[in-house]
Amino acid sequence: MALVVFLLAYLVRRKLDAANAWSSERLWRSVFHSGSSVRAGSEAATWKGLIIITVPALLLAAGEWYLHVLGWRMAAYPLEFLLMVLLMGAPGWRPRLDVYRESWARGDMQAAWHHIRDSLPADEQGTAASPDEMHRVLSRTLMVSLFERFFLIAFWFVVGGIAAAFFARGVIALRDHWPQTAARPGFAALAEVVNWLPSRLLSFTFGVAGDLAGWMKEGKRVLFDVALKTDQVLMGAASAALTGYALDPERFSRIHPDEWADFGGRSLDAIRDLLNRSMLVWICVFALLVIAGVM
User: Fold this and answer.
1) pLDDT on residue 39
2) Who's near 203: CB < 8 A, 6+ residues apart?
3) Which of 35, 77, 222, 226 supports an S-S bond with 236, CB 3.0-4.6 Å?
4) Are 136 and 247 in contact (CB under 8 A)?
5) Where does the pLDDT of residue 226 fall: very low under 50, low under 70, confident under 90, or very high at 90 and above?
6) pTM: predicted TM-score of the whole model, two decimal places
């Protein structure tokens, strides 16, 4: 039944993302802002944010266990479905990417940058000195965002149930939205811990869902480098698993200069298709786990 809950939530979330609806970011921000007051000199403390996400996660775990003991496990599925719909999703990307694609095709790189700038992390907004770098920054941000809003939630839902999925998503939200900026590096470090295993599992999936031969040459290296961060793991594996230099704009422009105007759209399509195929692989693996009685 857990697989059915995830599939239904995933399909509904994709529809909501297409309609740019039901973003949970505002809810996370409002919760954190309402409980984030700290004394002067304690701005870097992370304990208060962790309590805000840990207490509900523990309550979810306890409620799930209690219903299982009573034999009413089915009663938890509607709540799990609703929470999964809220925890997953990245609404707002599609319209920005559509305008970015059109601007790139016209050769208007300034307009392309203007439309995607606010979607990038604050520390990345000043790094796009060229179209090549702009596209790499966008690709990296998009891939990490979709990983953390779908694959990360799916992984922890399978491993630890709705409580683990809630906690993992809460850590990402703390990193992005905690009002005290001095505490965010601590949350970012915890996010890397939460991301570590699922990001490497997804990087392996890129090889299965993409160009396996190319991934075997370059992408597999990221699996064995424990110090790489999430964005480095995903970009390295995806670049190796995609053909046609989809994540290497500089090399593409040298080899196919006449097709440069199409590069932005083709690259985004390649990323989208790779992630969609990878999710299909994960769903198939989940189904096999259900058949084997593991889930």
Assistant:
1) 66
2) 219, 222, 223, 233, 234, 236, 237, 238
3) 222
4) yes
5) confident
6) 0.92
Can you state the percent helix, strand and coil of the chain, rounding each to 5?
A: 80, 0, 20
- pLDDT confidence of residue 229: 93
C-alpha–C-alpha distance, residues 290 and 286, integer Å = 6
**Contact present, 238 and 211 (Cβ < 8 Å):** no
CA pair distance 292, 197, nearest whole angstrom: 22
In terms of pLDDT, which residue wins out, 74 or 51?
Answer: 51
CB atoms inside a 10 Å sphere around CB 15: 12
Q: Whole-angstrom Cα distance, residue 19 to residue 274?
A: 22
The whole-number average pLDDT for the span 99-112 is 88
119, 107, 129: which is closest to 264 by C-alpha? 107
Cβ atoms of residues 98 and 111 within 8 Å: no
8 Å CB contact between 257 and 239: no
Place of tokens 């984030």: 36
From 36-45, 58-67, 89-98, the region with the lowest mean pLDDT = 36-45
C-alpha 149/C-alpha 117 separation (Å) is 20
The model's pLDDT over 241-261, given as tens digits with 9 standing for 90+, comes to 998 888 888 888 888 888 888
DSSP string, 81-113: HHHHHHHS--TTHHHHHHHHHHHHHHT-HHHHH
Least Cα distance to 9 among 90, 91, 86 occurs for 86
d(CA 100, CA 115): 6
Which of 274, 45, 283, 5 is CA-nearest to residue 139? Answer: 274
